[in-house]
Amino acid sequence: MLTQEIFKANDIRGLAGGDDAQWDADGAYALGVAFVETLDLANKEKAFVLGRDMRATGEELSAAFARGAMALGVDVIDIGLSSTDQLWFASGRLELPGVQFTASHNPATYNGIKFCLTGARPVTAQQLIEIARRAYDFEARHNKPNDRVIGRLRSQDLLQAYADHVRSLVNTDDMRPLKVVIDAGNGMAGHTVPTVLEGLDLEVIGLFMDLDGSFPNHQPNPLEPENLVDAQRAVIEHGADLALVFDGDADRCFIIDETGEVVNPSAVTALIASQEMAREPGATIVINTITSRTVKEVVEDEGGELVLSRVGHTYVKAMMLEHDAIFGGEHSAHYYFREFWGADTGMLAGLHVLAMLGRSSEKLSQLVARFDRYANSGEINSSVADAQETMNKVAAAFKGRGYVHFPDGLLVEGDDWWVNLRPSNTEPLLRLNVEARDPELMASLRDEVLGLVRGE
Fold first, then answer.
1. Which of these is catalytic: 91, 104, 266, 309?
2. Record keywords: Manganese included (predicted)?
């Protein structure tokens, strides 16, 4: 079973298991067949790497996908439980396409798939459409999967190799001792972080490090403030220098400073971008349409080049490769590195922040202060009947007050402020982000747009 709702702009994601399931093991089998056919793997690489997160349906769905692929004679290298960036690493190291079973930050009842081409390169929108078309066609032609298996399945543990590679990309010499809170949220960071941090001069306070796809403590979505409260409380309680909070598949990392305040992900982007441009003057940095103007100012001040991408990991990764960018960052706390095949990795970003703080005499709040120049609303979600009609309504209300255009949803730009309203790539929501130099103006713009969107 496959329903249209599971096919998103960047990946596959939907309810799995239970009476309201939007896809099941038979659908996963069909997707395995479609993936091989779309990429012509039986005639090209003849193999791919497969990983999964800790969700309850992950083992069944990924196994069915593998059977579908092997029925066409393609080999599967199964790396087992893995974070999404560990799968990107495996694709880059083994020079094979990759498939990661995960629903990222979505609730426990969801599951999904993220794909990549050889070398962790992103699949295109057209390839995702073709995978969907071929999967539907397979289901229409077959009542159930067949039992034929031609390809081989073999397991390979790449956790230590992944950890070694991430560590090799960051200078951790001469770091002072740090106390760090790690909130894995019962997600895949509990699997990867201990191995990556092993041997560093860190006192680690771990929160919810055991893998549990039911997420008994809080949802695996650090974009929602309520999911950061435990780490904020732990930083204060333990007198920690900072906290790293990961989402479910551990490809995103949120940072909390020593005061318990959340560090704006755009400030983290500017901080790392500044470091990378010092290492490579004139380097290119990729951001998306909702990243703070602070990043643009920092890149321009330090002589770098800036490239603007649509929101979403496949779009940013494509821009990273096209422009040979050294680093990229999204306001959702996705961070991309040239030395990591242009892919996103929350662990590498967190390690960079740890290393920079460890080599500095400043506290984290002081270190990032110059990179946080604007007041921002954070991402505010609303359910609407018609996203395009709602964006047009807001655009009309702002006519003559700023530059109104649609590079990725609606973007209205003033001299010292901007408003972005765009449909989610993964959920039936309209997402609002507002930024202004003046906090009162930001609040006024935020409230005005929410009133238009929600009819208040």
1. 104
2. no
